[in-house]
Amino acid sequence: MKNILVFGGNGFLGRRICQTAVEKGYQVTSLSRSGAPPRVKATWEKEWIDKVKWQQCDILNPKSYTQYLRDADNVVHSIGILLEDSSYKAQVNGKLAFDVKKLLQWGPNPMKNNPNFTYEVMNKQSAVMLAQEFAKVKHSNDSVSKTMTYISADKSFPGIPSGYMESKRAAEVEIMRLEQELRPILVRPGFMFDESDTSLGTLNFRSQVKNMLDLANWSNKNFLGRRIECVNQLFRPTVSTQQVSRALIQKIEDPSFEGVLSLENIINS
């Protein structure tokens, strides 16, 4: 049975990768710090959540997950940080009215003294370490092409430190160096939202940012005709976690594909 191992499978994007893989007939295992399944947003989600094996590991300690790599055909690294402050995720994913002051005031940071909560460690080192460990694994069936997927990013966002994109691109370079041992897939989504949130009319922070970006893109297309390149680069299309997940599984199943899966390719998949 085809299988997939998702690191960070209970996260914002990771949960949808797990869901899509289950729906496509994969045996799915999620590894995360807590080992717990994601919160059920709707009763129908319980069906696919119950089909995933939810396991615990420390992404920075290979000994905690090497046992799972031995039988894995496909590995996905869906762990990373946008800011070097863990409390921002609660703000972004919470149901908050849009308020610039709230955006900038992230609140208490339970990991502010954790030296590992940095772009270098979380976005780069954890991914490169995982890829290197996976590359070492020898399968009994050598005809199976192992895929290593890294969730990178299309562009940075205004106000986000340069270290964010630098760590993403640096990780991509290191993973591509292992292409003789595995098939690398580098996914570059833009600003992501969840379709279930928008369908329910949820007014959380992500939904509001999506609406603003969609309006900016509509204006750029209809009033500026996308003729100003700097504006085109600033206002990139939004993409749903479901779109990203479907495009990712599609590329995993295409043995001829490796390298960068761009935002445009994700949208057009």
From TrEMBL:
GO cellular component: mitochondrion
Organism superkingdom: Eukaryota
UniProt name for this protein: LANO_0C05028g1_1
MF (Gene Ontology): protein-containing complex binding
Pfam name, any one: Epimerase
Protein source organism: Lachancea nothofagi CBS 11611
Ranges where the NAD-dependent epimerase/dehydratase domain occurs: 4-78
